């Protein structure tokens, strides 16, 4: 049966979700076992203490009712205290809106900032997080790319940012630690970018989904500049290993949070009560788990580097948190390389082309490898596959 209506032009023209698209390549692999190094998903379950609290909260019937639009007061209080310690800030709970994940935080922020069908544009660093670009595409918002170069480990250049902003720019979006490159953007670079945004009277939207895994003890000092031009996006999916519970947040000036609440009321009404009620009383007790996750990721990055070092001509351009952005030596598109690796050798990665719309971007000769959803031992198990793949590609080309 043929449907007799159609989705909007902007949604139809946006990208397919990249993860399931790439997963189809792995379905064609005929070997005995395959390895998924494509997705940023924590392999470990949440800590036992949190699992127990979730169980307790699941039988409290009031948790199944609507909660506060901006989030539960106790949860916001615990989150605020953590942020103030982490950033040497002086936030209040009025600066916080809890959302069902960081993607929802981004979506809420963009809807609160832009007017559909006007001439607004948003600056994304390239390579970008693909769901950011997909959101803007579906909302018919133009994207301007801040090209980040491989010879600078994909750290953005503030001078380039100043050049890419125009009179229609409504915001600049940076991600640190970055997805897909893994790089943590130094505080001085972020400060320069924020000052440029302030001069242009636009906000810097800083997605800090992976903040617990930053290479810096204090990711930045932006709160010393105030909240007049800063919007931070957060996620609890990664550092607490609860991606299925969908919990994130927006940190911004209280006036902007008030506008975001209008948007949130139209699609979420209120975030999950059970998740917030479980985390709030044990918030600080979960810090050891976060540190364990960070140390585990560091060890897995070391393992991956030792593996890549054995492949002639390969190199890790940047890495950190969940990801490594790896350069290969073949004169082929990243999509061709990634699809061949999956279809014929059973290792799924994502091509750099998934993270840019610029054919000239340095991302195009890279693969994104996730170390998050595999163990160190699993990474070691892939070694011979990588060696066989490299030999095959060099003989064939």
TrEMBL record:
Q: Give the Gene3D superfamilies listed for this entry.
A: Type I PLP-dependent aspartate aminotransferase-like (Major domain)
Q: Name one GO biological process term.
A: amino acid metabolic process
MF terms from GO for this chain are:
pyridoxal phosphate binding; transaminase activity
Q: Which residues form the Aminotransferase class I/classII large domain?
A: 57-379
The record's InterPro entries line, in alphabetical order, gives: Aminotransferase_I/II_large, AspAT/PAT-like, NHTrfase_class1_PyrdxlP-BS, PyrdxlP-dep_Trfase, PyrdxlP-dep_Trfase_major
What SUPFAM superfamilies does the record point to?
PLP-dependent transferases
Give the required cofactors. pyridoxal 5'-phosphate
Quick check: keyword Transferase in the entry?
A: yes
Family that this chain belongs to: Belongs to the class-I pyridoxal-phosphate-dependent aminotransferase family.
| Protein name, entry field | PLP-dependent transferase
Organism expressing this protein natively: Wallemia mellicola (strain ATCC MYA-4683 / CBS 633.66)
